[in-house]
Amino acid sequence: MVHRDQLLMAHGLALWNLETRDSEALLDIYFPAQTRGFAFARGSLYYGTRVDGPYQLRRWDLQTGEETVIDPEARSGHFMDLLASPSGHWLAEGDSEDDGIRVYDLEQHNRALTLGQRGRVPVGWDVPTEWLFVSNG
User: Fold this and answer.
1) How confident is the model at residue 18, as a pLDDT?
2) Helix and strand element counts for the chain (H, E)
3) What's the pTM value of the predicted model, to 2 decimals?
4) Would you say 96 and 105 are in contact if contact means Cβ atoms under 8 Å apart?
5) DSSP type of residue 6
6) Residues 28, 34, 36, CA angle at the centre, nearest 5°?
């Protein structure tokens, strides 16, 4: 159970229309204070967080408000990088202290593969090929 004093409101998350240069609030939800990395795909917000334990990758459904754990396997405290592919099919998650980049198939709702080695993080996706660009640490 998360106590109210452990929560942090996500004030800075907004949706910007670059054509009109207008923004509108997208989220008014509370996250545990130990939350890192955010990515949007397929009507959901993905993020790394921990509550009384190690970091985990979680999903917040923006329609229902339901939170689910996407990958219960623990990550170190350096969990930071999340990138969704342009199509929303893939989610790449990098932790500079763990075993490389984990790539999730958001259509199948599972971890598809792990790329590289410790110290690598995702930096971008190519459009339209959806090739993943990765730093070498």
Assistant:
1) 73
2) 0, 14
3) 0.75
4) no
5) G
6) 75
